[in-house]
Design a protein that fits this description.
By secondary structure, the protein is of the alpha+beta class. Among the domains are: about 50-120, membrane protein fhac (Ubiquitin-like (UB roll), Roll); about 120-165 and about 215-355, Rossmann fold, CATH 3.40.50. It contains ten helices and 15 strands. Strands 7-10-11-12-13-14-15 form a seven-stranded mixed sheet, with helices on one face. Helix 8 crosses helix 9 (about 290-305). The termini are far apart. Mean pLDDT is about 75; it is low at about 160-170, about 190-210, about 340-355 and about 370-385.
Length: about 375
């Protein structure tokens, strides 16, 4: 019985303590209620305020993807309250686009929404069946070209060397040296040409006016076959090793600044790789060993040692680059380094050549002396007779 009384007393004490804790001053409860009401009214006012309605949705970071395509995927409407706009759904829709690597959507108060896109960087065009796909460094198909664009890409990037570039320059120089009576007509024609060139440059600067706006500055690949290619997914290839080396070459060209100048890359034989730059420089690379360093050296040579109008063949199968113009076939070498051994060998060769030439000269002088003596003897004999 005593134990039961102790338990009941302890329960009563707990109940009393809880009741004291549950009791809250009326002023405190009133303050909380007022705060909730104020927040509710503020939230309702924010949802009803016309200044918080979305007035602009804009994109940044997109280069190859059209802004219109991003907007269509996002499906974000202006005029709707900025807090009621479903940003998460728009982000998921944009992320499904094959060329999008990542996307971030932010509310820019009071009434703007910013869509920041990071694109996948395409590295190469590879034909498959009747299509041409563009791959990035992760072997993801970022774009699949069909129909007319396949024809345009093939015609634009298939090797065709224009040997008439220098001839046109010579013809223009000869026309500039014509007679005084024809100068006025030539000036008029040159002005017209300048106007036309200016219009062409303005059209090329404005991407929407160019006919080949959808063609990217990446090389067309030959010598590799893909078994399956779907936009937004990795390609399947029977020779993964060759595909890996192809990607490594393209990444090296991209890091050296040559990828956008490259128009054609043949990897049929990985020991005899062929690269075409701007449809005028035919480069024999040999294999793909040490391609990062070699690509940088090759970029330095092309940018600083070779004319922007020169049509030539470059042999880079060894340590040095041998340049052979397609017109005369004469070869010149551009060396990376000269070792002390090679220089000493060259000096030894030059000294030996000089020595040989000196010996030859001494022999010739000795022969001339002997001839003179023999002639003198003959003349004396004739006088005696």
């Amino acid at each position: 019985m005593q134990e039961d009384k102790k338990v009941s007393r302890s329960n009563k004490r707990r109940t009393a303590k809880r009741s004291r804790q549950s009791r809250m001053p009326f002023s405190a409860r009133l303050g909380i209620l007022i705060t909730v009401l104020v927040l509710t009214v503020a939230a309702a006012g924010a949802l009803m305020a016309p200044g918080l309605n979305v007035a602009e949705v804009y994109c940044e970071g997109n280069v190859n993807i059209k802004t219109e395509d991003i907007m269509n995927a996002a499906q974000l409407q202006t005029g709707k309250n900025i807090f009621l706009t479903h940003i998460g759904k728009a982000s998921r829709n944009i992320d499904k686009m094959p060329m999008v690597k990542s996307v971030k959507i932010q509310r820019v108060f009071p009434n703007r929404i910013c869509i920041s896109v990071e694109e996948r960087a395409p590295l190469a065009y590879i034909p498959i069946n009747n299509e041409i796909v563009a791959l990035d460094a992760e072997k993801i198909v970022v774009k699949c070209e069909k129909d007319d664009l396949v024809t345009k890409i093939t015609q634009a990037y298939t090797p065709k060397f224009n040997d008439e570039v220098q001839k046109n320059e010579e013809n223009s120089s000869e026309n500039n040296a014509s007679e005084d009576s024809e100068k006025d007509d030539e000036d008029t024609e040159s002005d017209n040409l300048n106007v036309e060139e200016g219009e062409q440059e303005s059209q090329s600067d404005n991407g929407e006016q160019t006919a080949d706006i959808n063609i990217m500055n990446i090389p067309l690949i030959s010598g590799i076959e893909l078994s399956e290619a779907t936009e937004g997914k990795k390609v399947k290839c029977g020779d993964e090793d060759k595909l890996d080396k192809l990607i490594a070459i393209c990444v090296a060209l991209q890091n050296s600044g040559l990828l956008q100048k490259s128009t054609y890359l043949d990897v049929t034989d990985l020991m005899n790789i062929r690269l075409i730059i701007e449809n005028r420089l035919d480069i024999m690379l040999g294999d793909a060993d040490n391609i990062d360093y070699r690509a940088k050296f090759m970029a330095e040579v092309i940018n600083n040692k070779i004319s922007a109008y020169e049509v030539a063949i470059l042999d880079y199968t060894g340590d040095d680059i041998y340049v052979r113009p397609r017109e005369d076939g004469k070869q010149r070498v551009i060396e990376k380094k000269k070792t002390s051994t090679s220089s000493s060998n060259e000096e030894t060769t030059e000294s030996s050549e000089k020595k040989v030439s000196d010996d030859e000269e001494s022999e010739e002088s000795q022969n001339d002396t002997d001839d003179a003596r023999s002639n003198g003897v003959r003349n004396i004999d004739d006088d005696e007779e």
